Amino acid sequence: MREYNFDGLIGPTHNYAGLSPGNLASQTHGGQSSQPREAALQGLEKMRFVAELGVGQAVLPPQPRPSLRTLRTLGFTGTDEEVITRAARDAEHLLRLTSSASAMWTANAATVAPSADTADGRVHLTPANLTQMFHRAIEADTTHAVLRAIFADPKHFQVHAPLPGAAHFADEGAANHTRLETRGHKAVHLLAWGRSAWQDVKGPQRFPARQTLEASEALARLHQLDPGQVVLPQQHPDGIDAGAFHTDVLAVGNERFLMLHALAFVDHPALLQTLRQKLGADFRSVVATNDELPVKDAVKAYPFNSQVLSLPDGTMAIVAPIESRETPHARAFLERVVAEDNPVKAVHYLDVRQSMNNGGGPACLRQRISLTDAERAAITADVFYSPALHETLAAWVRRHYRDVLRPDDVRDPLLARETMTALDELTRLLKLGSVYDFQQ
Ligand code: SUG
Q1: Is 90 exceeded by the pLDDT of residue 166?
Q2: For a disulfide at 194, which of 41, 235, 339, 402, Cβ 3.0-4.6 Å?
Q3: Mean pLDDT computed over 338-354
Q4: CATH at residue 62
């Protein structure tokens, strides 16, 4: 089994609209101009870097934005151009909500369980319904279509429908999921949540908790995981109130290693005790206390929103955002991680600032999917990274993306046309078939 990081290709409408309460970067940068071309190229450079470390890398496509389908559902009629002009005139906020390139954060696209852990021996994938935020909820249908197109072979893959809507099963995907494993022990799935729809649990006071316990429980059932291997920790309400809207803002794990902030989970000592019982003596964890790394710095610099990657030589490397190098407490923490007795031997800092400004670091930009050789061979879409695919995609970005997008540019009907032209071409480049509604 090999892990592939499926990165979201950053879409042509990448912009800063301040859409996510509780996500401080989104709030801070709302209204600023963005650089879609630079954003997409930064994302491609991260893919190159990870692939050159010897780690599996693949790509997921952006979604059509503005979402004309959504605007039509909301009563805007006429040609595509008229729909946009009318939305711009009568309900501009709806145009902003339907223009986000937020599908780039593919950690939120789905939750995935590898075939080694599921009762029927298939890979299970559930697209996240993302019901908590409207601009993200509109991703689920297209994500479902894309995953069905890529993971099409029912012998190897089961792509479930997103969990049913409404707040009860609010699901934010793998941003709240961590799979841990040590030699000789069965893998453990941490499926975290921020609130319960049914039970009386104290949640955050200031910012919304996105994932429900009920959604996490449903994912464990759907994916046919052994209940004894599932742990359902609560995200710490104080962490959410400090801006950690997803678990992966304050914790990241890989195989036998977990690093976390003290405000990532409620009662983290008990959680670590449970993990040690299930995973044995090889399990390693590093906790940052609030004194060592104030949660404010952790949320600003995103050291936990790193990719922890298993390298071919048996060690692990951390791919962190450049903001973590610039923030002394975050940097000192990561240096401590490398110095301690655990598998992490290096930390690399990458520039994904365009995404970071909307609250998405390296870990947000990728969905981890572990595949056997047979499973990989069953995928016919051209989504696996190669230097040649990199060149193709970089040229595609340079051909179609704007340099700068000012907030008002989403009012321009030409932007929607450009996006559709670009995405139509992309589905042919990636051999995806017709996955978008405008192609039906
Ligand atoms: O859902 N930002 C995303 C960031 C998602 C980060 N993902 C993980 N932590 N895995 C969100 O809040 C901002 C869009 C805007 O404001 O324009 C946004 O949607």
Answers
A1: no
A2: 235
A3: 98
A4: 3.75.10.20
What's the CA gap between 98 and 101, in Å, rounded?
9
Strand order in the sheet with 251-254: 251-254, 257-261, 284-288
Quote the ligand 1 centre to 245 CA distance (angstroms).
Answer: 9
Range of the domain at 230: 2-439
What angle is formed at CA 106 by the lines to CA 103 and CA 112, rounded to 5 degrees?
A: 135
Q: Is 100 in the pocket of ligand 1 (CB under 6 A)?
A: yes
pLDDT tens digit string along 62-81? 999 999 999 999 999 999 99
Give, for ligand 1, the residue of 96, 207, 246, 300 to mutate: max count of ligand atoms closer than 8 Å to Cβ. Answer: 246
What are the tens digits of pLDDT across the range 175-194?
999 999 999 999 999 999 99
Residue 160 appears among annotated catalytic residues: no
Task: Report the chain's mean pLDDT, rounded to a whole number.
Answer: 98
Would the CB of 249 count as within 6 Å of ligand 1?
yes
Say what the pTM is: 0.98
**Domains in the chain: how many in total?**
1
Residue nearest to atom 5 of ligand 1 (CA): 360
Residue 136 Cβ inside 6 Å of ligand 1? The answer reads: yes
From 71, 106, 110, 73, select the one nearest 92 (Cα to Cα).
Answer: 71
Q: How far is CA 213 from CA 193, 195, 248, 255, 320, in A?
A: 5, 6, 16, 24, 29
Average pLDDT over residues 303-314: 98
